[in-house]
Amino acid sequence: MRKRGPGWMLPLALLLLGLAVGVLLFRAWIADVLLVRLSYYLWQVGLYLRERPQGLYWALPIGVGLVMIVVILVRRLDIRRAPKLPSETVGNLEDWAEWVILASVNPYFNRHLYRKVVRLTERVLWADPFSSGGTDERTALGVSSLPPAVEDLLRQRRPPSFAVGPEAWKLDVIVQYLESLLEVEDDR
Question: Terminus-to-terminus CA distance in the chain, angstroms?
Answer without folding.
Answer: 87
